[in-house]
Amino acid sequence: MAYSTRVLPGIIGNATSIHVLASQIEKIAVTEHPVLLKGETGTGKELFANAIHQLSGRTGEIIAVNCSAIPEHLFESLLFGHEKGAFTGADKSHDGFFAQAEQGTLFFDEIAELPLIHQPKLLRVLETKSFSRIGSAEKRRFTGRIISASHENMALRVKEKAFREDLYYRLNLFELSIPSLAQRREDIPLLVHHFAKQHNNMIFSQCALELLKYASWPGNIRQLKNTIDKLMILADDDYLSAQCIQKLLACETDPNILKQLAKEIIALPKENKIKAIYDALVEESMEQSQGNKTKAAELLGVHRKVVERRLHRINDDIKARRLYDKAM
Fold first, then answer.
1. Both 216 and 303 in a single domain?
2. SS3 148
3. Do 36 and 172 form a contact (C-beta atoms < 8 A)?
4. What domain range is 193 assigned to?
5. Cα dist. 135→40, 140, 174, 181, 248 in Å?
């Protein structure tokens, strides 16, 4: 397995969805048009914004603004800047985010949280490509590029009158969807090794990687990284098994994965599918535990006697088949 597949600056992945997204970004990055990044919390929207900025060739910096964290009374000052003496406490002139992003990128994270009262002000800058500091009539040219991001359904926000429709269409000339971790599960082992390498390069057993691959990750990549960080601290040695991860973190399997597996099992060309799966699980657990029934039972999350009974039935079936073959 290749443990590092870089598709964009700061982005790794092997999933088809990531390669398709990377191809789109490479074409869009060199333009000056606004980009709206959609995706669940923790999918790395800011990383993708940074990748777009780096590929754009812009000489300025990328300035990140968390719209949900801007105090309403400071909005204009923080974004547009102010002149000395423009208001009480303005003891010196200040460049706002629009000026700081000169020849660069202004990244509005959680754009859906921008209060309605301030949305026309942002729209005006997008329409005129200019702004003025508080306390000044001088028009200053905005030379940056706008990238926005949200984990919310922006179209629904518009429908609910919580976000201006004209601003929404100004921001999403290019609208890109960042896949959730559940949509790119094949990348989880790759990401696990990448995050582990940032610490002491801990080794994960194949079973451990499979457990992490099919675990539930509502917090997406951010949650996965936090999980690996925890394991680096809690683990007693440099080798992590599936049992160790379950003991330390109690990972839960994504119910959607179980449903998908059930569909695949039902599609198998077997008469007694339940028996076939039971037998396969026991045989695989015995192989992974090198014949140790206690460890095999731990892998399956059952009592040792369950494994023993199933092995007896498997052996009886094998003997019966041999007798039948001889009789034929």
1. no
2. strand
3. yes
4. 184-255
5. 39, 13, 35, 47, 57
Instruction: Please report the sign of the dihedral spanned by the C-alpha atoms of residue 155, residue 157, residue 159, residue 163.
Output: negative
Pairing mode of beta strands 6-8, 11-12: antiparallel
CATH of the domain at 290: 1.10.10
Residues 194 and 169 in one domain: no
Tokens 């800047």 locate to 81
Q: Is residue 129 part of a domain?
A: yes
Does 148 reside within a domain?
yes
User: Which two structure tokens, joined as six digits, stand for 5?
Assistant: 């597949």
DSSP per position, 50-106 = HHHHHHHT-SS-EEEEEGGGS-GGGHHHHHHEE-TTSSTT--S-EE-HHHHTTTSEE
Q: How far is CA 114 from CA 45, 47, 74, 111, in A?
A: 17, 21, 13, 5
Q: Which two tokens stand for residue 208?
A: 């451990």
Same domain, residue pair 55 and 139: yes
Q: Is residue 207 part of a domain?
A: yes
Regarding pTM above 0.85, the answer is no
Instruction: Write the pLDDT tens digit of every residue in 256-303.
Output: 656 666 676 777 777 777 777 778 788 888 888 888 888 888 877 778
Contact 247, 231 (CB under 8 A): no
